[in-house]
Design a protein that fits this description.
Length: 358
């Protein structure tokens, strides 16, 4: 096992700067998830860690060692790709043992390791099959087994579940988490699915456009997103954003919306009077109340255990997620309460989080 450190890492393809100075330290045994929209540089970063892509600037360290100039095979890393890349003409067992065979490892040791990995991955009955005779999830497990038999210091996963259907994804997700808990190996895992990131990670790295927006434990990012991008990216359904101007007329600050409606804000320094702000509130924190902010029901989506409702609040739509049944219908006027202690505030211009007393 080993730690992985990225120190001000940069990558340019010709004139195009794709990774613009990324620093992340990943502890030994940690499950780190890189998440961000398509094209933000997740795969490129992963490929630089394993040596498939050269680093243009900065350092990659594995353990205490700088590996910038090491070949992939000398980095003691195993990568599982999105397209499992199994050899079609080899059985499951041969696929898993192939890298050891190439290295001239003793047949008996190969068999032992393949057997142990197959057992851990529930593939024991399938070792003589060919990839075409397997389901997507089974193929995915073979690809993991192939990585596991190498006993690497670090596992890299690049969107390993994206070819699976929704149900299989959820199942494999928990299998990967369990596997990590058993093996204790450092994992760097790329996904653009924030639910996968939240459920798997010890630490999430949110990226956008080649830079890191925030690093933290899943619930840290959920509770205290440092800017509008992270706030909107983490959490599903996404956080509601309501724009307005801070007003301190009667002491306690309110957010004055364009529609002239107002929402009470948590305590803020008086210097915020008149500032353009964005109020963030998660759908699960909205409440239906007798008094409060008047809104109109737009769409009701019952899901059984919960109900998602879209309301219009002046020119903005806001979504609420309720664990009780919702009886309202489209067009109906109701009131919502926005609990002050659940409010996130961002500066409209810088998009950064504004610290409140909460
Ligand atoms: N070999 C290359 N030459 C030129 N540009 C590249 C190359 N590889 C990647 N890029 C560019 O670098 C950027 C980051 O790509 P990357 O594959 O790392 O994104 P990603 O975050 O993994 O996206 P996705 O979620 O779609 O897989 C993209 O704009 C991409 O077009
Ligand atoms: Mg990618």
């Amino acid at each position: 096992m080993a730690s992985v450190d990225l120190i001000n890492v940069e990558k340019a393809f010709g004139e195009l700067n794709v990774i613009k100075g990324v620093s992340v330290s990943m502890k030994d045994g940690e499950f780190v998830v890189l998440v961000g929209p398509s094209g933000c540089g997740k795969s490129t970063l992963l490929r630089m860690i394993c040596g498939l892509e050269e680093v243009t600037g900065g350092d990659v360290r594995i353990g205490a060692k700088r590996v910038n100039d090491l070949q992939p095979k000398d980095r003691d890393i195993a990568m599982v790709f999105q397209s499992y890349a199994l050899y079609p003409h080899m059985t499951v067992a041969e696929n898993m043992g192939f890298s050891m065979k190439l290295r001239g490892i003793d047949r008996r040791i190969i068999d032992e390791k393949v057997h142990a990995a197959a057992e851990m991955l529930n593939l024991t009955g399938l070792v003589d099959r060919y990839p075409r005779q397997l389901s997507g999830g089974q193929r995915q497990r073979v690809a993991m087994g192939r990585a596991m038999v190498r006993d690497p210091e670090v596992f890299l996963f690049d969107e390993p579940l994206s070819n699976l259907d929704a149900k299989m994804r959820v199942q494999m997700r928990s299998e990967i988490k369990e596997l990590h808990q058993r093996l204790g190996t450092t994992i760097v895992y790329v996904t653009h699915d924030q639910v996968e990131a939240m459920t798997l990670a010890d630490k999430i790295v949110v990226m956008r456009d080649g830079v890191v927006e925030q690093i933290g434990a899943p619930l840290e990012l959920y509770d205290s997103p440092s800017n509008l991008f992270v706030a909107g990216f983490i959490g599903s359904p996404a956080m509601n954003f309501i724009k307005g101007r801070a007003e301190f007329r009667t002491g306690d600050p309110v957010l004055r919306l364009e529609s002239s409606a107002e929402i009470r804000l948590p305590p803020l320094p008086a210097s915020f009077d008149g500032r353009e702000l964005v109020l963030g509130i998660r759908p699960e924190h909205l409440q239906i109340s007798e008094s409060g902010t008047p809104v109109q029901v737009v769409v009701v989506e019952p899901m059984g255990s919960e109900t998602q409702v879209k309301f219009s609040l002046g020119e903005t739509d806001v979504v609420g997620l309720f664990h009780t049944r919702f009886e309202g219908v489209r067009g109906e006027r109701v009131h919502i309460a926005i609990p002050q202690e659940r409010i996130h505030i961002f500066d409209a211009e810088s998009e950064s989080r504004v610290q409140t007393a909460n």
